[in-house]
């Protein structure tokens, strides 16, 4: 039993070493995680689909194979296409959809030897910040089952935090990796736009979406990234990572210039979060970082610009869900228009409909210049803000989210309130920069995340700084109660 | 057509490119075959799929733009054109909007000796949709109880050419489309087949009082699937509009459907909301930055265009303009002509032969030049045989037709069928003597001054020799013999 | 920025979403609130600012014109809600769109 608990506490890189050394078999490792899923997932609801037999088979094969990520039990956000395995995006629209192909980023990890545990829950079509917009019930935060895990990659973050996967794939459009990572006390990285292929990632907002790792520690994030990056001929917006990804060394933060973004601190941050953040910053300073004040003057407009551009792109990306070739089709329709309307009415939840309408409105005749056109210009301002700030600092930091995990149902009454959860993370997507969230401490027993942002394609330096922060903050084990309380 | 009214026509032409693969994915561009056998996640718009631009399609649109003497943009981007229709799998078409590939060109057309300049508004790149295989009565969309959709065609590269409203008669419109077709066939970028759908043409039609500069209300005329129907449809629509205006009514801006079976035009309900396409830049594709270098490369890969080739035939080869135009009207024909010249260097003779004989055979058989068994070298060989007197010109024409049909060489056919021209005076003298002896009446007539009777004698000799006698020799010998005794 | 029930109806039609009459008010109110927040963008004078449509500065990303195997017909049709004679069957198309 204690060995099983130990297995659940292992990071991916630790587990990999043990497998290489023959101390643990891939089958044992997978069995431990499948067991944990069996034990807790009825409560946590991190998974929409557990591919038990497949995982057992894959881990069995891993026992006699090599591979850089050999035998690592992985959870995959259900927004990524997996050939032969249902991919629903947590929507009724795709409840029975089985893709005929696998997303490039998933294939790369599979080629490196991961074991697929299953597909995780999310906000429907990645639209949301709490995983309460899932058509199949919310996921619960392993730190407090009455609370949300964050979103939209809530299932993936909860799975890692609950010991139901050694690591996971998520996606981030406005904070959907970083915010749930913060709420669940794990590490989440949104890579530079273009560094990870989007082929097979069901599109929400094409110029914002990125796939990234959700892991137990920073080194694991770097390890997964090494296998995710690389230009994909199937994705015109993907590029070869110019500097590659290095696994961070155990170093302090000497010489790293860190700017605390003033505008992201101003108002709206919960006192508990602020306290944890401030203490963490002190530790970074003690570890040798040069702390200063950074400014992103147009931050106040970022949310507004995002909530025009992302829904606009989404309104087009979701037009393919029409009941013709796959997915849900409403029965008894009289004519094609009726079929479209009924299908999309039944298939989409409220939030998805709301964003489609917002986006359609913003693009419609007469409104394009005022909304979409204007928002694209604000995007330029945000890009320039970051360029300016990152010329003065190596890394920018802020709390990842203004609050800790809120209670289920607390923010579902008013969409705008929910949108404000992403206020610290959204600007990073507008600029296409890399951002990582790591655990910074606890407020009232709930995890608080610290966000670090670097220049484009600076993942190695960014993760190195994050590792330095991880050491400086020294939280010790960040395992959630569901891992610790195994009897 | 009433002289009071001037029709104003703008054409919107879609050209399906004959690339190997589709515009944004590697599925094969084909025609026919079982439905839904040439699709993939990209062209069938599965969730998560992404487009990647086909380089050859860009080369092709480059050639098209240059052949129409357009200004090519330095920077061009794709836009999403958003609307719902079952054959449009993404619910948007990747097309171009305010930064198209090329603008401001022209293609001038000559009809009955008169030149009509036609300006080109824009040339842009987009992708084709899937196909409705209608079911239910009539085969028309509106009558069918349901439709079947095939996505094989979805994603095939499409180039859209839009003319300015600069055409003023259905005849010129037809001539324009024909010239555009020939130009595109020259470039080898498309099959340009209206029946198969690789060349499609819609028209914007309006009329205005002659002399007025302001344009009338225009309608969009669709579904003309051949040159003939294009001309017919335009004629009908112009008539319809004139009738309305002369009755004091207004022309409504709407789509007008041309019915192929009856040749009639039917206005359709207009749906205002259908035209809010909500264009925005395509985030999944990088912009095109078109350099001078690229344009130079495309130009260097372009074949000589018909108008330039025609000029060359006139100035360098000394052919009459008429001949040059006919020969260059098809790239295959012009190529064949020049190849023949390599082996037989008399432009006028070859020209006459091709215009007279080759085109005749092609028209009669309904086949394309490439399907014929005839080669340029073989043609030259035949012409040399005629020159050498081995075969008469008339027999030569039959031989040529045979060559086209069978692929055999001239020499082979002549030998097999014993068609060698008889020029041997000895053989002919005897035959001529016999003919003269057998027709005393005509001899009298000829000697009496009726020159044309000579033709009768020639005819008789020809009959007896199955046409193989050398006509000039026969003529000479006849005159000698008739004059003689 | 007030979004009216008519606006919602129009936009819903464009997006092929069926919003019940009873729901129109809720959506128009929510959209108005959101757009109200977004309206602050109109305060900015951005006449000299270039729009960003692509955050990565790429150009001329293309692939060679080679064909590769397509999905098998079975795979292509596998998820089809209604398939007939190898094609996707859809109900009557009443209006001819573009």
What characteristics describe this protein?
heterotrimer; A: 487 residues; alpha/beta; Amidase signature (AS) enzymes; 17 helices; C: 98 residues; alpha+beta; two-stranded antiparallel ribbon; 3 helices; 3 strands; flat
Structure overview:
The complex is a heterotrimer of chains A (487), B (485) and C (98). Chain A has one domain: Alpha-Beta Complex (Amidase signature (AS) enzymes), CATH 3.90.1300. Chain A is built from 17 helices and eleven strands. Chain A has helices at residues 2-9, 12-21, 26-44, 52-62, 104-111, 154-161, 178-184, 218-228, 271-286, 299-317, 336-347, 350-363, 369-392, 415-419, 426-431, 459-473, 481-484; strands at residues 47-50, 73-77, 115-120, 167-172, 187-190, 210-215, 257-261, 290-294, 395-399, 435-443, 446-453. An eleven-stranded mixed β-sheet of chain A has the order 1-3-2-4-6-5-10-11-9-7-8, with helices on both faces. In chain A, strand 2 (73-77), helix 5 and strand 3 (115-120) form a beta-alpha-beta unit. The radius of gyration of chain A is 21 Å and the shape is globular. In chain A, 68% of the residues are buried. With 485 residues, chain B is an alpha+beta fold. The relative contact order of chain B is 0.09. Chain B is 40% helix and 19% strand. Chain B has three domains: 5-295, no CATH class; 304-417, no CATH class; 425-484, Arc Repressor Mutant, subunit A, CATH 1.10.10.410. In chain B, strands 3-7-10-13-1-14-15-16-17 form a nine-stranded mixed β-sheet, covered by helices on one side. In chain B, strands 6-5-18 form a three-stranded antiparallel β-sheet, with no helix packed on it. Chain C has a domain at 5-42. Chain C is 34% helix and 9% strand. A two-stranded antiparallel sheet of chain C has the order 2-3. The longest helix of chain C is centred in the N-terminal third of the chain and has 18 residues, at 21-38. Classes of the chains: A alpha/beta (487), B alpha+beta (485), C alpha+beta (98). Chains A and C meet through helix 10, helix 11, helix 12, helix 13 and helix 14 of A and helix 1, helix 2 and strand 3 of C. Strand 12 (146-150) of chain B pairs antiparallel with strand 3 (87-91) of chain C.
């Amino acid at each position: 039993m204690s060995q099983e608990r130990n297995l659940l506490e292992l990071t991916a890189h630790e587990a990999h070493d043990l497998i290489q050394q023959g101390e643990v078999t891939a089958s044992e490792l997978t069995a431990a995680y499948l067991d944990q899923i069996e034990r807790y997932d009825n409560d946590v609801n991190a998974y929409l689909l557990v591919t038990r037999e497949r995982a057992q088979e894959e881990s069995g094969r891993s026992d006699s194979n090599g591979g850089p990520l050999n035998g690592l039990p992985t959870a995959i956000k259900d927004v990524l296409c997996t050939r032969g395995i249902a991919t629903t995006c947590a929507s009724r629209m795709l409840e029975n959809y089985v893709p005929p192909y696998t997303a490039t980023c998933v294939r790369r990890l599979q080629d490196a030897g991961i074991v697929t545990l299953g597909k995780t829950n999310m906000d429907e079509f990645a639209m949301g910040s709490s995983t309460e917009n899932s058509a199949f019930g919310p996921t619960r935060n392993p730190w407090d089952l009455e609370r949300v895990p964050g979103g939209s990659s809530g299932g993936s973050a909860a799975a890692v935090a609950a010991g139901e996967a050694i690591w996971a794939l998520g996606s981030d459009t406005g904070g959907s990796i970083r915010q749930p990572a913060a709420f669940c006390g794990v590490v989440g990285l949104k890579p530079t736009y273009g560094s990870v292929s989007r082929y097979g990632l069901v599109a929400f907002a094409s110029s914002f979406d990125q796939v990234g790792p959700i892991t137990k520690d920073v080194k694991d994030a770097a390890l997964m990234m090494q296998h995710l990056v690389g230009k994909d001929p199937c994705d015109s917006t993907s590029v070869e990572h110019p500097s590659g990804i290095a696994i961070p060394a155990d170093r302090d933060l000497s010489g790293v210039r860190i700017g605390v973004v003033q505008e992201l601190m101003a108002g709206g941050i919960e006192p508990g979060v602020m306290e944890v953040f401030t203490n963490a910053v002190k530790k970074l300073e003690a570890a040798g970082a040069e702390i200063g004040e950074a400014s992103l003057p147009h931050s106040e407009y970022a949310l507004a610009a995002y909530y025009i551009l992302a829904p606009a792109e989404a309104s087009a990306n979701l037009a393919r869900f029409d009941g013709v070739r796959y997915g849900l089709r409403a029965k008894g329709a009289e004519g094609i228009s009726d079929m479209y309307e009924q299908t999309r009415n039944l298939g989409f939840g409220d939030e998805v409909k709301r964003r489609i309408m917002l986006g359609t409105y913003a693009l419609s005749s007469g409104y394009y210049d005022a909304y979409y056109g204007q928002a694209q210009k604000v995007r330029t301002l945000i890009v320039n803000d970051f360029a300016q700030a990152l010329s003065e600092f190596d890394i920018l930091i802020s709390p990842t989210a203004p609050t800790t995990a809120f209670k289920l149902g607390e923010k579902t009454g008013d969409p705008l309130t929910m949108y404000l959860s992403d206020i610290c993370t959204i600007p990073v997507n507008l600029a296409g920069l890399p951002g990582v969230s790591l655990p910074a401490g606890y407020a009232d027993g709930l995890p608080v995340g610290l966000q670090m942002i670097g220049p484009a394609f600076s993942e190695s330096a960014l993760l190195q700084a994050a590792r330095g922060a991880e050491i400086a903050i020294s939280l010790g084990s960040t395992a959630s109660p569901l891992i610790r309380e195994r009897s | 057509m009433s002289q009071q009214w001037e029709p104003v026509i703008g054409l919107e032409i879609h050209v399906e490119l004959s690339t190997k693969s589709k515009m944004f994915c590697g599925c094969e561009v084909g025609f026919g075959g079982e439905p839904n056998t040439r699709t993939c996640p990209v062209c069938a718009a599965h969730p998560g799929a992404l487009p990647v631009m086909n380089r050859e399609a860009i080369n092709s649109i480059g050639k098209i733009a240059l052949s129409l003497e357009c200004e090519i943009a330095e920077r061009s981007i794709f836009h999403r054109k958003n609307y719902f229709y079952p054959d449009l799998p993404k619910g948007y078409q990747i097309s171009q909007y305010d930064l198209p590939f090329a603008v401001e060109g022209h293609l001038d057309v000559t009809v009955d000796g008169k030149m009509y300049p036609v300006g080109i508004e824009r040339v842009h790149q987009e992708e084709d949709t899937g196909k409705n295989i209608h079911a239910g009565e009539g085969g028309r969309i509106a009558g069918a109880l349901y439709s079947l959709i095939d996505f094989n065609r979805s994603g095939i590269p499409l180039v859209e050419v839009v003319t300015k409203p600069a055409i003023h008669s259905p005849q010129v419109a037809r001539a324009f489309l024909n010239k555009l077709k020939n130009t595109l066939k020259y470039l080898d970028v498309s099959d340009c087949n209206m029946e198969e759908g690789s060349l499609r043409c819609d028209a914007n039609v309006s009329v205005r009082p002659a002399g007025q500069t302001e344009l009338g209300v225009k309608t969009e005329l669709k579904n003309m699937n051949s040159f003939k129907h294009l001309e017919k449809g335009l004629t009908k629509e112009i008539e319809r509009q004139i009738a309305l205006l002369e009755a004091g009514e207004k022309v409504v801006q709407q789509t007008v459907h041309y019915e192929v079976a009856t040749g009639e035009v039917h206005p359709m309900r207009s749906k205002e909301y259908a035209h809010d396409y909500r264009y925005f830049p395509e985030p999944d594709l990088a912009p095109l930055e078109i350099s001078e270098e690229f344009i130079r490369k495309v130009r260097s890969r372009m074949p000589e265009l018909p108008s330039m080739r025609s000029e060359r035939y006139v100035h360098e080869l000394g052919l009459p303009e008429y001949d040059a135009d006919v020969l260059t009207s098809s790239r295959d024909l012009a190529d064949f002509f020049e190849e023949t010249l390599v082996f037989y260097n008399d432009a006028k003779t070859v020209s006459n032969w091709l215009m007279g004989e080759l085109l005749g055979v092609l028209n009669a058989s309904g086949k394309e030049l490439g399907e014929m068994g005839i080669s340029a070298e073989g043609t030259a060989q035949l012409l040399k045989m005629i020159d050498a007197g081995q075969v008469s010109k008339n027999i030569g024409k039959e031989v040529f037709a045979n060559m086209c049909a069978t692929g055999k060489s001239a020499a082979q056919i002549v030998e097999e069928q014993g068609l060698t021209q008889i020029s041997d005076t000895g053989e002919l003298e005897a035959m001529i003597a016999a003919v003269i002896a057998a027709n005393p009446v005509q001899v009298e007539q000829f000697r009496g001054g009726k020159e044309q009777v000579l033709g009768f004698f020639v005819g008789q000799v020809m009959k007896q020799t199955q046409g193989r006698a050398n006509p000039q020799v026969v003529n000479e010998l006849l005159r000698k013999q008739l004059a003689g005794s | 920025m007030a979004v009216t029930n008519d606006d919602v109806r129009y936009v819903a039609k464009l997006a092929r979403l069926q919003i019940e009459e009873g729901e129109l008010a809720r959506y128009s109110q929510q959209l108005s609130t959101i757009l109200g927040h977004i309206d602050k963008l109109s305060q900015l004078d951005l006449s000299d600012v270039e729009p960003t449509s692509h955050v990565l500065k790429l150009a001329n990303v293309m692939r060679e014109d080679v064909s590769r195997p397509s999905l098998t017909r079975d795979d292509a049709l596998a998820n089809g809600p209604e398939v007939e004679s190898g094609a996707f069957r859809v109900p009557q198309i009443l209006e001819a769109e573009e």
